[in-house]
Each structure stands twice: as structure tokens, then as C-alpha cells.
Specification:
Elements: E1 8-15, E2 25-32, E3 38-42, H1 48-60, E4 64-67, H2 70-84, E5 94-97, H3 98-106, H4 115-121, H5 134-138, H6 143-171
Parallel strand pairs: 1-4, 4-5
Antiparallel strand pairs: 1-2, 2-3
Helix pairs in contact: 3-6
């Protein structure tokens, strides 16, 4: 009997606010590094509680989670939404933050550690694109805005996965937390 493969997943969220008591979780995307598949879901597919529960199941199925600024934002936002809906917090997993890895492990001192700037700096094959704030504001009422926001979220996980490949050699040289 063979052991199941170690599952590393890159993830991203899109929300209406940076505070989980004020904002809504609009969509989430998860990219499995073993096979490159991306799965995603929006608040329109069952509501925010169902989306938060789905995110928790994605986290539970992973051994390692990678995200950009996920240490400071993503995982705490999901926990806040889960708590607001009376659901248990995310299961404990290993987390790697590409923002923190770039800032403390790589040490290249770019003008910004944003995903957009780092993707341009490293010349990644898929660069981080920006969307106007109107897409987050209108996503609940405009299907086209929600579609574009979901595409943006899916693109973010692909860019973060490419960024992780560039930063991985620097990760082990940094003690992190």
C-alpha cells in the first residue's frame, strides 16, 4: 500500500473588505501543485457560508498551503468568516507565504513586495493583472463582474505558484516563523 502524495496547494481569496466582520468572502481559488488543476467557487454558488465551508474542505485536503500575504490576511479572513457563521476554524496546516519569503528570504529589496511587482520583476510567464475596485463593489449584483473577479482570483493562484518556484531556493535559508 502506497502512502497518498503530499498535497501542496496555492490559494487566494477575493473579498469586499479586508476585515472579516465587515466584508464578504466573494470567491476563492485553489491550485494543486501536484497536477496543476485549479478549482474555484464563488459566493453565488450557495452563499458565503457554503463558500467558507468549501474553503475549509480544500484546506483540510491539503498538507501545505501557499499564498501571497496569506499569513497576514487570507487564512485569518477565512477563520473570521467561519466564526461569523458558527463553523469551526480552519484545520491546522503548514503555511508558506510568498510575500514573507520574498521579503525575508530572498532579500532582493524590490520597490514593492506586491504580487504584481514581484511577477514583473521575475519575468513570470503569467503576470499579475489589476482590476478596478468597481469589480469588487458590483460582483454581487453583476454576473460579468463576478466572472472577471473569479478569473482574477484563478490567475492570482497561477502567478503565486510561478512566484513560489522562483522563491523556493530562498525559503530554507530563512528561518521564518
Amino acid at each position: 500500500m502506497t502512502a497518498p502524495a503530499f498535497r501542496a496547494v496555492v490559494y487566494d481569496l477575493e473579498c469586499t473588505n479586508l476585515k472579516s466582520d465587515l466584508g464578504l468572502l466573494l470567491c476563492a481559488a485553489f491550485l494543486d501543485l501536484n497536477d496543476g488543476t485549479v478549482v474555484s467557487k464563488t459566493i453565488k454558488q450557495g452563499g458565503e457560508k457554503a463558500l467558507a465551508r468549501w474553503c475549509a474542505k480544500q484546506v483540510e485536503a491539503a498538507d501545505l498551503l501557499i499564498g501571497h500575504n496569506e499569513t497576514a490576511f487570507d487564512r485569518h479572513f477565512i477563520d473570521g468568516v467561519l466564526t461569523r457563521h458558527g463553523l469551526p476554524p480552519l484545520p491546522r496546516r503548514i503555511h508558506i507565504d510568498t510575500y514573507q519569503t520574498a521579503r525575508h528570504g530572498w532579500g532582493g529589496i524590490p520597490s514593492s513586495y506586491s504580487l504584481r511587482n514581484l511577477s514583473a520583476f521575475f519575468g513570470l510567464s503569467e503576470e499579475k493583472e489589476s482590476l478596478g475596485k468597481e469589480y469588487w463593489r458590483t460582483a454581487l449584483t453583476d454576473p460579468e463582474s463576478m466572472r472577471l473577479l473569479l478569473e482574477h482570483c484563478e490567475a492570482d493562484v497561477r502567478v503565486t505558484a510561478l512566484l513560489w518556484e522562483k522563491l523556493r531556493p530562498f525559503y530554507m535559508g530563512w528561518r521564518g516563523r
